[in-house]
Amino acid sequence: VKMPEGPYIGQTKDSPAPTMRTISNTEQTINVLVPQKYIEENFDIDWRYFSITFYYAFGSGSSSASDQANSLGPAHRTAGYKRLVPAADFFPSMFGEMFDITDKTNFPSIQGSNHAGPAYMGPLKDDWTKVCPVEWTQEERDEKCISIQETIYGTKTLARLEAIKEALDPDYMFDCAGCIGNNRKKETETKDDETTSGMTDTKEEETTSGKIDTKEDE
Which residue from 119, 140, 122, 120 is spatially nearest to 131, judged by alpha carbons? Predict the structure, then answer.
């Protein structure tokens, strides 16, 4: 049965369903990496903030336990723990309280990739307090909403990772939903199109020129 609506409209569900089910739901949930600084400054409020499932995931040495050359986003470095929060609750209020969102050209790293569902997105690009509508097509969401990659790594780190990806794997041999560069138009496709177009145009011009020259000679 094909999906009748939502970002995956027209696509079919797995049958049978995967044996290992995800906790990701159709309604967006943010895997918020709550900053340690926020917890310390709002301890009493933080513990009463909604009856939402969370788990302890970080110790005091999380920011210095490695050389940072791993797959964790910047938010992991300063987080106290991770909490699952509905996007409709997080972006309108909690987002601005927990993270610095004054620079509208630099979306911060706010969540972990663990449990990030395939339909998850960041807020609207032109209004970070509004959730990306789940009823939009995936094309609309990609165009108008912050990508899942940007919510995990932040604007600056994501740009660096995308550049590394293009340099080391320009043909996208390694690719997956939600991975670095997966939501972008691959440069190799553009190059192939330009090359093919250029070759076709040249042949057509040569053929046309040849016919004209032949007729003129005759």
Answer: 122
The residue among 72, 146, 71, 74 whose CA lies nearest residue 105 is 146
Q: Which residue has the tokens 């969370």?
A: 54
Handedness of CA 100, 24, 181, 13 (dihedral sign): negative
Q: How confident is the model at residue 28 (pLDDT cuts 50, 70, 90)?
A: confident
Record the tokens describing residue 191, joined without a space: 């190059």
Q: Report if pTM > 0.85.
A: no
DSSP 18: P
Helix extents (H) in the chain: 36-41, 43-48, 87-89, 95-98, 138-144, 148-153, 155-168, 187-217
Give pLDDT, residue 196: 45
**CA dihedral of residues 130, 110, 54, 20 (deg, nearest 10):** 90
The set of residues, in sequence order, having a beta carbon less than 8 Å from that of 35 and lying 6+ positions away, is: 75, 78, 79, 80, 98, 99
Cβ atoms within 10 Å, residue 172? 17
Sort 185 into a burial class: Cβ within 10 Å, 0-12 / 13-18 / 19+.
Answer: exposed
DSSP 8-state assignment for residue 97: H
Q: How many CB atoms lie within 10 A of CB 94?
A: 20
pLDDT confidence of residue 176: 82
Structure tokens at 24: 């990701």
